[in-house]
């Protein structure tokens, strides 16, 4: 295959992990790559690491830019890329050396414009779990959306996937928003029409305390998530009404995650924010408790939250274990 694949890597504050990430991309079995390293104004040694790699491999192009956040860095990469296909890799993660080859092969085999693979959840030393694995096959847009909303063989993340470049002719990631992938995944699936799964596990997602997903609770971030959930709901009601039960499950999981995070960060004082989250969860709780995929542990935590017993439980746990 002669298609040029652009791999876009947004980079900020990851000097400890960056070399491993870039090495995993350089060593891909598929060689026709354009590797775009977007230094998003990183304050550490990342800019120097990027420049050093650029000198070693002619396929690498480095963009140094003012800090604008993950979405802005990805968009800068998209605007610069020349590839027939795009792949996104987060700079604290790494990939199997066959990932691009297998993703591209799936696109060709199933004649699709978007493909995904499963991922390893890791702390950088050992694998904690394999997520979103599934059989090698193609899904219709409706099937793919249901798989994503139900948390089965794929999810909303921009990485661990490959895209034909024309899917990004008009789509860009929303600048200034965390959880930016929620805002675009359904648009990409709809445009692609069909999505393939490689049937393989190729992406190593590093779960670490300092990552964006571990930041403290933010009311502004909650409002952005709710805005995006409302947009998804309106879109699905019009274009894919059969996906609505799956969406309500997805919505409730997100509300529960926000509520859980708020309590861990702020406690259970009856603030306006706490009451808002509680009311939203109560309205949708049946989807949460009836979901077979929700771990029993999380259901027990949710019951404690609804009975106002969770914060006392956390205080006792913290005394015993030293952390919440």
From TrEMBL:
Ranges of residues in domain Glycosyltransferase 2-like: 6-170
Name recorded for this polypeptide: Glycosyltransferases involved in cell wall biogenesis
Coiled-coil segments on the chain, per record: none
Assigned keywords, A-Z: Glycosyltransferase, Transferase
Keyword Transferase in annotation: yes
InterPro entries with a match to the protein in the record: Glyco_trans_2-like, Nucleotide-diphossugar_trans
Organism in which the protein naturally occurs: [Ruminococcus] torques L2-14
Any one GO molecular function term: glycosyltransferase activity
Cited Gene3D superfamilies: Spore Coat Polysaccharide Biosynthesis Protein SpsA, Chain A
